[in-house]
Amino acid sequence: MTTDVDLPTAVSRQFPSAAPRPSLDCPAFNVPAGEALALLQYLRDAQACDFLMDLTAIDGSAGQSPRFTVVWHLYSSTKHTYVRVAAPCATDAEPAMPTATRLWAGADWHEREVYDMFGIKFTGHPDLRRILMWDAYPYFPLRKEFPLAGLPTEMSDADINAETGVGVISAPMAGGPFVATPGEPMSAAEPRAKDEAWNEKKEKPE
Amino acid sequence: MVNANPELAYNSKIEGDITVTRADAAINWLRTNSMWPMPMGLACCAIELMASAASRFDIARFGAEVMRFSPRQSDCMIVAGTVTYKMAPVVRRIYDQMAAPKWVIAMGACASSGGMYRSYATLQGVDRIIPVDVYISGCPPRPEALLDALMKLQTKVRGERSCAKLLSA
């Protein structure tokens, strides 16, 4: 990946409040929420970062403040460089962030997804609805306190709910989640190695 | 040149224009050999479903090649893929719109049990909302497995008391 070496100095001259953010690859900045849009616009217009690669968020879990951070990944199609911008949301209970849809129309669905998963409201968004879960879903699934298995609730169609009597349940985890752990040899890291109570060689205990 | 054996074939001179059979046998024979699927393709299993319909595997050999995208014209819903909670009411509504008699094949691990998606967003088995006749294991199952399931379903339908059901309905 090529890196734009002049960009950090140019940004820190233009935006003294933008602090360098620890990053292993491209230049990255922490910026207050109020100045995020101005910085993004500067990067788009003056630094030719014309493409919004990604827009996502980080939940630092309930104890941390500021809890939610919105992250923008930009790409320059002329310089072929990346840059990352992160801005913490002002309040932890009702997180909000100004919308980037006026800079990039493509931010629309990204922001809807971040709203759907984290509950961060993007002020000024033209159509801020859930995009993956249904409209009446009561939770924000990527928040840290939300369990992987999910929480019981109702499905979206009242007729079908009445007819089937079936709702959303917490998924049975059966000793899971079965995910590989890093830094171990494959024989110990794979999910199947975590529960060897019975397998092809050892018979199932009665 | 191969000549038909007149001793084994239907002999109109002896038997006339009448064939005698049981109503159940006739009805089930019709149903088993023209089981039009409702392709409920929700994920990667649908690709295997499409492969079963193509020339190499050729589901037409079993009379089930007429994929109907209208529930009114289909007999057998093939739930091929992950059913999310957002999609589940839609699947149920389409099942309700199918005319009886109707059957359901749960194709693959996701449709049968939720599969690897032990998560907040996935219905843990389509049999929670609709009755399933045949389950297919696999992730995704090969087309042969789907054909095997179809043959199992045909065997099941052959044994049904269709006439009694029709009269009591």
Fold and architecture overview:
The complex is a heterodimer of chains A (206) and B (169). Chain A is α/β, with parallel strands linked by helices. Chain A has a domain at 7-132: 2-Layer Sandwich (Beta Polymerase, domain 2). Chain A has 5 helices and 7 strands; from the N terminus they run H-E-E-H-E-E-E-E-H-E-H-H. Chain A has helices at residues 7-14, 33-45, 107-118, 158-164, 186-189; strands at residues 19-20, 28-30, 51-59, 68-75, 82-88, 96-98, 121-123. Chain A has a 5-stranded mixed β-sheet with strand order 1-2-5-4-3, covered by helices on one side. Chain A has a two-stranded parallel sheet with strand order 6-7. In chain A, a hairpin with a 6-residue loop joins strand 4 (68-75) and strand 5. In chain B, strand 2 (76-80), helix 4 (88-97) and strand 3 (103-107) form a beta-alpha-beta unit. Chain B starts with 11 loop residues before the first helix and ends with a helix. Chain A binds chain B through residues 132-134, 139, 141, 146-151, 155-157, 159-161, 163-164, 166, 168-174, 176-177, and chain B through 85-86, 88-90, 92-93, 96, 114, 117-122, 124, 128-129.
Any chance you could write out the topology, listing elements then pairs?
The complex is a heterodimer of chains A (206) and B (169).
Chain A: H1 7-14, E1 19-20, E2 28-30, H2 33-45, E3 51-59, E4 68-75, E5 82-88, E6 96-98, H3 107-118, E7 121-123, H4 158-164, H5 186-189
Parallel strand pairs in A: 2-5, 6-7
Antiparallel strand pairs in A: 1-2, 3-4, 4-5
Chain B: H1 12-15, H2 23-32, E1 37-41, H3 45-53, E2 76-80, H4 88-97, E3 103-107, H5 108-113, E4 134-136, H6 143-158, H7 162-168
Parallel strand pairs in B: 1-2, 2-3, 3-4
Helix pairs in contact in B: 2-6, 3-6
